[in-house]
Amino acid sequence: MPVKKRIIPLLTVIDNFLVKSINFNKLINVGDPIKSAKIFNDSDADELIILNIQRENRNVNSFLNLVENIAKNCFMPLAIGGGVNTFEDSKNLFNSGADRIIINTSIFKNFSLLDEISLNYGKEAIIASLDFKKINNEYYAFSNCGNIKESIQIDNLIEKIDNYVGELFINSIDNDGSMQGMDINLFKYISSITDTPLIGCGGVGNFNHLRDAFLECNLSGVACGSLFNFGDNNPIRAKNFLTNYDLDFKLINQ
Amino acid sequence: MIGILNAGLGNIKSVQNSLNYLSIQNEIIENLDGFEKKFSRLILPGVGSFNSAMSDEKIGKFVNRINDIKSKNFPILGICLGSQILCNIGYEGGTINGLGFINGDVEKIKTDERIPHIGWNNINIIKKHHIFENVTSGFCAYFVHSYRMNIYSIDQCFGTTLYGESFPSVVINKNVIGMQFHPEKSQKNGLKLLKNFSEFNAS
Question: In this complex, do B47 and A77 lie within 8 Å of one another by their Cβ atoms?
Fold first, then answer.
């Protein structure tokens, strides 16, 4: 029997404000991350992903207070990232209450960091966040909040990191914030070349999009920003809908 | 008062946050000197690998003291890697001796499913115990691991979980309890287990 599927609210944060991006750009202020995290904790969400997406002068230290305040009242797994450049950064985040650390830019700039973190905390505690954009029908990986196009081929990239991380967090920059559905082909392809668990992200606008992603791709979880930031959708309602399709979730109070 | 041993094995803050939330007195401790005078229970949290956990820089240097505390019947709770090192032997990063409180070894999960086993899964309670008070068999808990315990004495296995194969997820030998999942991250059920541990005394 497989592990239960996860629906993971995604909180993107700048300067202690909860923001939502569209195509990794165009940021909209959508509220208070501490209140938001508390609501997800109270409704037994499966996990939370919290990303510091500050574009300039981003550093982990200015983010630690927020992480601590969120972690104090969240008894669910917290995956946290954004600007993790050194081992010290990861250590500080773990000590502030992160359960897993999300790494993006360092995968391309400072690969030995993955080795260092996995040696101390286990590779299970590392999530590789991989942001893809389609250009002329080819997927390219981007780093630095989607600002820098990397030259490494998708297959080589996955092969390179597979042994150093516990999960892959796959983002479609094109679909981000669109609420028009997920990039199923991207997830299908990556799923076919790795045995590492995958979280898909980008484009969920309604529960049908979640259903399609879970049924068509071998995803362990789907992360959603807009779906839960705008409107009255929440993970409990999403799961109630999805259990009609033979998908196994942790239900509330279970 | 519960002592949470910070042996350099990662996430201790979550354990403390959950005990604080439950208003259970606790303290993160850097060593076990004079433990018996101040504390009544010990938690061994842990993430990472078996071989690095048992090294002298981490749990290795505390082995004698942990043995004392165990033999004086103080309740001990190992979480995740902290529960794996309760076993005799681990095969992660070599063949490594564990604490030997639980009669078993630790090997890689054998499954066609994706590894690591990350996420929520059910725990089937196979034997009654105080630690399970107010939780029902089949409850969900959060797992993050690639290795699993393999128990030689069936009487020490109290809960099992299915992921490709069935493996022990709650192991108990008298005053020593191990949980493969993270109770501190398992919402209401996990908090109940921690509360039960705070009231547990091995007779």
Answer: no
Partners of B44 in beta bridges? B78
C-beta separation of B77 from B42 below 8 A: yes
Task: Record the pTM.
Answer: 0.96
- Give yes or no for A42 touching B (CB within 8 A): no
Per residue in A177-236, pLDDT (tens digit) is 999 999 999 999 999 999 999 999 999 999 999 999 999 999 999 999 999 988 789 999
Mean of the pLDDT values across residues A228-252?
A: 90
Task: Report the CATH number that the domain containing residue B176 is assigned in CATH.
Answer: 3.40.50.880
Around Cβ A236, how many Cβ atoms within 10 Å? 15
B18–A75 CB contact, under 8 Å: yes
Between CA A209 and CA A212 the distance in angstroms is: 5
Candidates B47, B116, B187; nearest CB to A197 = B116
In DSSP notation, B48-99 reads: S-HHHHTSTTTGGGGHHHHHHHHHTT--EEEETHHHHTTEEEE-TTS-EE--
Contacts of B114 in chain A (CB under 8 A): 195-197, 218, 220
Distance of CA A160 to the CA centre of its chain: 20
Q: Residue B141's beta-bridge partner residues? A: B121
Nearest to B118 among A44, A76, A220 (CB): A220
Tokens representing A244 are 């009609």
- Tokens at residue B136, please? 């029902």
In this complex, which of A3, A96, A121 lies closest to B118 when CB atoms are compared? A3
User: Cβ contact (<8 Å) for A122 and B18?
Assistant: no
Question: Does residue A6 sit at the B interface (CB-CB below 8 Å)?
Answer: yes
Ranges of H-type helices in chain A: 33-42, 61-72, 87-96, 105-109, 112-121, 154-161, 184-193, 207-216, 226-229, 235-242
CB atoms within 10 A of CB A151: 8
B36 min Cα distance to partner chain A (Å): 26
The nearest alpha carbon in chain B to A93 belongs to B11
**Contact indicator for A160, A133 with CB cutoff of 8 Å:** no
Domains of chain A: 6-245 (3.20.20.70)
In whole angstroms, what is the distance from residue B203 CA to residue B190 CA?
Answer: 23
Domain of B182, in residue numbers: 2-199
The domain tally of chain B equals 1
Examine the pLDDT at A1 and tell me if it is beyond 70. no
The answer, yes or no, to whether residue B144 has pLDDT greater than 80, is yes
What are A44-97's pLDDT values in tens digits? 899 999 999 998 888 888 899 999 999 998 999 999 999 999 999 999 999 999
